Amino acid sequence: MAPKDGIRCWVCGRTAEEVERSIGSPAVEPTEADKNIIKVNDQRARFYKVATDWGEGVPDQFKNMDFNFIMGNPSQFKSLRFIDDVEQAQKTYVEPLVGISAHAKKGEEVVVGEIKVKADDAKRRDILVRQLDEFEKRSGRPLSMLDGPKPRGFDGLKLADGLRYLRDLGVMYFVLQQKLLELDQEEEKKKLPTFGISMAKIKTFPRAVPLCTVCESLIKGL
Ligand SMILES: [Zn+2]
Question: How many angstroms separate the alpha carbon of residue 29 from the centre of ligand 1?
Fold first, then answer.
């Protein structure tokens, strides 16, 4: 039961505001989610930079060629330094994203990077579905290669556009992790102790009295 505003601690006589002021904001250790968000942001920034460099210095006659044609004949286009990186990025980001999209929409367990979302975790699955829907709407291309109207995947994209789309897909892979971690962070923050006054019962006392967080923990220790 929360006491009314202005109520003072029965022991030290301070209001909740005074207690909070005297303690200041408690030093909070970074949580697991805090650390992982920093890690994912860092990976995203690094990938973005690498992927942006792919298109740099590519002659226009290549830029206007079909993305799928070039990627389907890698040995013919050895002069393009990034071919191997692009193939790797498709395996690392595009293939998993297609799976993430399918599993999340079907209500199945989803794995995103190092994060596992259980089938019954509708809240996190909804986050994924919403992000992926918005991404598909923005790009006008469904992630699922199995159904949905054309254009699919990289169909019809010129090299320059395909490289940009691939970059967006890779970034999306990290954004999904970031959104899930932000929810973890929110939930972890809610578990942190708050300072204030609540009604508490002391062993030898017949009724509950208003006690501030500090006095309550002191008395409990007696
Ligand atoms: Zn007190």
Answer: 25
